[in-house]
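Hey, quick one: can you model this chain's 3D structure?
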Amino acid sequence: MPECVLTFNSPVPMDRLDTLCRSLFPADAPGAAIGVLTGDGMRYAKGFGLANLATKTPFTPQTPFRACSISKQFVCLLIRQLEHEGKIELDAHPSRYLPELATFPPRLSVRHLCQNRSGLRDYWCAAMLMGARAESRFTLDDGAALIRSLAEPMFAPGSQYSYSNGNWRILEWIIEAVTGRLLPELLAERIFTRLGMHATGWGCDTGIALAGNIKGYRQTGAGWEEEVTRLCWSGDAALVTTLDDYLAWEAVLLKPDLAVLPCADTLAEALPHPNGEPGCYAFGINAWQQGARTMHWHGGALRGWRMVQMRFPQEQTSIVVMLNRTENPSPFAMKIAECIDIKTTWDDVEESPRPSRHGIAGAYFSADLGLLAEIRDKDDQLLLDLGGEAAPLLWTGERTLANASGFFRLEWREPKVNIRARHFGWQASFLRLAFRDDHALLAGRTFRSDLLKSAITFSDAGTALSIQGPCGQSDHYPVRALAEGFVAFDCDRALDELPPGRFTIQISQDCRRIEVSCFLARGFLFTSR
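Sure thing. Here's the predicted structure for all 529 residues.
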């Protein structure tokens, strides 16, 4: 499909969008494919920068791209179609279709898997506690075995949201069980061929180079370095497409043609939270609402490959950003939205003056959630760190704070911080922990997990650790003090992207057990024998 630039109904000069994109993506650096689409068929698709630095191959709308977790929407459409055909019941337990999953929580349903409400721990995070390194080989069989072992949930299915990639591997198995066909065959037949997505396919092994030897990169102090990945995935993230092809998908979701793509109008139906508030994650997409306006969005991420799509149903407009480098694409998408006069639907947050004095920084723990929250004051900017990407906070009152999107709202009542996480469907009280350096409690110790079949060994001073397990021997991680009974290590590069981030280690009073948790995978027990 040739590159084309068309004019929007609103008086938005395309040269302004071109100028913005050229300023964002230098011609001699890893690049981007940028798409903007309207429901009446108007389309902007252009590439900027390079797809391969060594060969100076330009990034174009026809460049093959690892769309990663954008795959989840496609898998969910198959689920909805099979539901419509009477072959899958959304509220059935997965064991109806896969008897070997009878050990999974009895209240678990297919719908919970589709909407990240299963409570199951993320298997990519768990793999890092099994000795994996960022460049380790990790096969489909490795993933299947690990997912089946993680049957015990972090919370009751349906009670809250937590992103878990393994949900989509289970959905893949269900689809294949009820149809007797492989997932890539069904996707090609039911979606790709129907939409003319002839350059789109399923790339399970990330160690195999894409057509044209397209590369993904990360920026280091010395410049750009090629990212190397050797993992295998499928239902959770294996989509390989181009911007030109992907815009055909966006077009049919903006203005569903059910004769071409049955059930294309059903992916935004989110299960409400138990407190009655609207759910924020539907069938493989985030569904965010502000008043009468909605935004459907999702990211895709692997080291070297980052993507985001933002779909605005009321404005009948989609924005797509594909980057072949390890960098958050959402700020670019939001700048493009601003350029074409579209407002994102995050909650409005009204900033107040920063109090002249405050002592909110510290570590806080919620025993109910098994989560530790760090509030850090860095360069005069408060950050909320639950273990993933830290969220910058704004003061909204003398004792209230929020992040810019409204995902998190905090009320500080010493010694507690009450945190409302609208996106995740929980509100909890976190109690401040007293600081104490507990490195010495772990010095020279080894702790083992029967579940993960791995061991964590601490250095003689307790200030570093390494992990030995089925995935190999990990890197050496520095260990930092957090609070009385807690230390942590940071996993900033991993098999998958985004990485797990902070792993919190809670030490038992007798020092014979530790509980290791990150935001997406909590409560792994290791014992010292």
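One thing worth noting: The longest helix spans residues 71-84.
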